[in-house]
């Protein structure tokens, strides 16, 4: 009589094949591995140490967009100080809140001199603290009078006659059209990668990080619907996720909002105050032999890079020329933070909150005599 089911010791079917090795393990073969320490920057475009790397990243993103322009012109706009007696900060806030750049671009568009609505602007500060803007637009030719009239349209918001060319909203200049988008991107980003010798105005450093942006762009300039919403105005460096961090979780978003309330000076003060420890792995492709590198995060130490390098044993690190990265050689046990010396009376003395007035006096006297012995 046939059995209705397989016995306890019988196999239910053919043996299963061994589990497949993950694809990455098949194609990537580790060759070398090393531990490196990296200086954590503040990621501020106002930072002398961080602005270069951020400017290069922006240029790499800017070039493909400008290469779609038929011709690129750079326009320069300044402000007449007589309209803002309180100083350059008042002028900057007015240009930002009144969207003077957008109004000027609309006037140029209505004049028929722009080939598209896309524009990209970079702000620069003069030695006296007054701002001016360099704007890249798609155009073949713009007459000086047309450009001046478009900038003077902003006089209306000051309660003045826009046709008054004697005073004007400020001066205007333009350069010859460029046909190479890469050249135009380098021209604009040069203002972002160099740190002014005289530094930035005091009112700029005292402003919140979300209040002053080094660049802005027209809505739709980046041609990425995920970065921009039709209901929003011109994008800024914080709006378009320039650093490529992508989507953030709720905790990260809250952290970003907290950082955005800091002043620019406070953000600059955090540059280099922490150090990231990473593992750099060099791998070879099993099929092609191509060598690639990847990084694994180990930890983030609440210790400045300079302090870490200062207490490193002789010959234990190999620092790069810029002083921002170091390879850790040999034994890395010295990385552990030194343990502070323990107070011998810590276990004998009672917590101060549990002491009476007399006990507190005895407590203080005993501690004073011990520490000054």
Architecture blueprint of SSEs:
Blueprint: H1 23-27, E1 28-40, H2 51-66, E2 72-77, H3 88-97, H4 100-110, E3 119-125, E4 131-138, H5 144-152, E5 172-174, H6 181-193, H7 202-205, E6 215-217, E7 235-236, H8 250-260, H9 264-269, E8 274-285, E9 291-301, H10 305-310, E10 317-319, E11 325-328, H11 357-371
Antiparallel strand pairs: 1-8, 1-11, 2-4, 2-5, 3-4, 3-6, 6-7, 8-9, 10-11
Description:
The structure is a single chain. With 373 residues, this protein is an alpha+beta fold. Among the domains are: 51-243, no CATH class; 274-332, no CATH class. Helices cover 28% and strands 19% of the residues. The protein is built from eleven helices and eleven strands. The protein has helices at 23-27, 51-66, 88-97, 100-110, 144-152, 181-193, 202-205, 250-260, 264-269, 305-310, 357-371; strands at residues 28-40, 72-77, 119-125, 131-138, 172-174, 215-217, 235-236, 274-285, 291-301, 317-319, 325-328. The strands form two sheets. It has a six-stranded antiparallel sheet, with helices on both faces. The protein has a five-stranded antiparallel sheet with strand order 9-8-1-11-10.
